[in-house]
Amino acid sequence: MVVVIGVGNYILGDDGFGIHVIRKMMEMDEFEDVRIVDAMTNSAMLLEAMDGEDRAIIVDAIDMGQKEGVVVFRFNPNREDFPSDIMLSLHDLHFRDVIMMARGVYNLPDEVVIVGVKPEKVEFSLELSDRCLSYVDRVIEVVKKEIGFNPSERKDKTV
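RESULT FIELD:
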């Protein structure tokens, strides 16, 4: 099975991008049979959500050096180390450390796909910046393709 996990801090503007996206997805009929989890910024909740799943799609505000656009990054947590220079919105531990500690304890999926956009404003706010808000629907479309709703050739790139 596939799980879609939103991470981020909802009250810190663009840091809550992943949460805004999954909350919208939870209201959409086409996702009623998809397991969607709000992991906030908690690494234990993220690991519990991924445990035993075939694939995990994590939605987050992520800075991979892109100016803007939707970024898709995939890796196998059982065989690959997560790059230390990529930061997800897990505030308690770095995602790389979380994955390394989870190996052998959790049944991690063979593929983790991270979909996100670069945050513009991380400050106390319940609102996304206009730029991040403009990418919510595009990220949902990318998630649909990753799930298989609209089968097409998958590509790893800035969209």
